[in-house]
Fold this sequence. Notes:
By secondary structure, this protein is of the alpha+beta class. Helices cover 69% and strands 15% of the residues. Strands 1, 2, 3 and 4 form a four-stranded antiparallel sheet that branches.
Amino acid sequence: MYLIEGGRVRIHLRDADGDDVTLAELARGDFFGEMAILDGKPRSAQATVTQDARLAVLSREDFLAFVRRNPDVALKMMSAITNRLRHTDDLLRVRVSRNLNEEEAARMTMADRFADAMAEFGGSWKFIVLTLLLLALWIPLNAWYLSAASRFDPSPYDLLALFLGVIAGLQVPIIMMSQNRQEEKDRLRADLDYQVNLKNELALAEVLRRLDVLESERLPLLFAEQSARLKGK
């Protein structure tokens, strides 16, 4: 494990898409490598010095010996690991939202884009204004300005009613198409949220497991010290 005495260190990794993701920017007083020093397994991320740094190195054997003498250190380290997991959780949620939008855009066809554009236009003030302008021009034109012989849609304006009915009939399936795809997007978002929550649940379970391991290593020493004190009395 490394303790930063000066400078800055960036913790990062490569995600499934090959992008370099920054997990944390650490400075003086921070530490990293605590997961590897606890379980002895390979490191889960990379560390890169971004500003000339001075690091103090602590080996796993020395750390375990120090924790046995100072059990409160283990609890403080677990708290720090939990805070970092929460930060990673927030980062993952942001990236899931971004990937969701990218995947949704990749799945969209030309018909889907057209349906979205029509649904957006049909639910806007532009559509309402254009409809009112059509009515304001159509009715006076056929009622007063054209002669009876040249009126193409005399009162009660059956052609206008047919035209508006066709527009309304086309709007309904287009809007439903847009709503159905939005429901698919919501289901995809729920599935990705579930995956993130599951990953965090497993990570927290791993933290608790490591805490139990430290506790099991410390308990025999505590019992031995307690027995020695009792015998001394």
